[in-house]
Design brief:
CATH class: Alpha Beta
Low-confidence stretches: 220-225
Number of helices: 10
CATH superfamily: P-loop containing nucleotide triphosphate hydrolases
Helix content: 40-55%
Shape: globular
Mean pLDDT: 90
Radius of gyration: 18 Å
CATH architecture: 3-Layer(aba) Sandwich
CATH topology: Rossmann fold
Oligomer: single chain
Length: about 220
């Protein structure tokens, strides 16, 4: 009988997750790939099961979350999938903070970078501790680095596929979600300073996502009600 294997990609946010979810994971043949992990996620017996959900990192870029949320998710994952193998991608702490800040500016509100860093749980950027705790709960944890994706995408992708035990699929090496520019951050902050309305900020956020063909918009459009 074919062994049932479960691989879970937990993010992090801002580490090329959308590229993997669009260009790599769904193109791997003969696996059960799902882009979320919750109580409805179905494990197919006798197949390789691959789940990818960056929110499993605890929503690390959101200032209203704490790192304890991350660790609660981790323990729940272990309860549901005790033999799962974990894939996590990390990046330089300072670069991650800058990228996370820009995502927050679009999605929620335009604090200054300094205020954002003060409000964010600092433990979210302790990637070494996160990996250590993952290795406590799970026997096999594969750590990759966003910088390697930038420098040598072929080697980066091959490493993940080797870990899963599958052939690397044909894919297009492209940036799926390009971060907003510093100039765009300044515009959004000025907009919020003038209008001081979270509702108008939300409407602006939707407009930015539509123009940029954001993955969130695609998810909303593909929903079946």
């Amino acid at each position: 009988m074919t062994e049932t294997k479960v691989f879970i990609h937990v993010g992090l946010h801002k580490t090329g997750t959308t590229f993997l979810q669009n260009e790599i994971f769904p193109k791997i043949p003969n696996i059960n790939y799902q882009r979320h992990v919750d109580l409805t996620t179905r494990v197919v017996s006798g197949k390789v099961n691959l789940f990818s959900d960056e929110n499993l990192d605890g929503g690390s870029y959101r200032i209203f979350n704490t790192v304890q949320h991350r660790y609660n998710i981790m323990e729940n994952l272990h309860t549901l999938y005790p033999t799962a193998k974990i894939i996590i991608c990390i990046r330089d702490r300072d670069k991650w903070l800058q990228s996370a800040y820009k995502q927050y500016v679009v999605a929620y509100y335009s604090y200054s970078f300094r205020d954002y860093c003060k409000r964010l749980d600092p433990k979210f950027t302790d990637f070494d501790e996160y990996i250590e705790k993952l290795r406590y709960w799970f026997d096999d944890v594969y750590v990759c680095h966003y910088e390697d994706l930038v420098k040598n995408p072929k080697e980066f992708v091959n490493g993940i596929c080797d870990f899963i035990g599958v052939e690397t699929p044909e894919y297009e090496n492209k940036i799926i979600y390009k971060g907003i520019t510093d100039g765009q951050v300044k515009f959004i902050r000025l907009f919020d300073k003038i209008f001081k309305s979270k509702l108008l900020h939300f409407m602006l956020s939707i407009g930015i996502r539509v123009v940029r063909k954001d993955e969130t918009i695609k998810k909303w459009q593909s929903r079946k009600y």
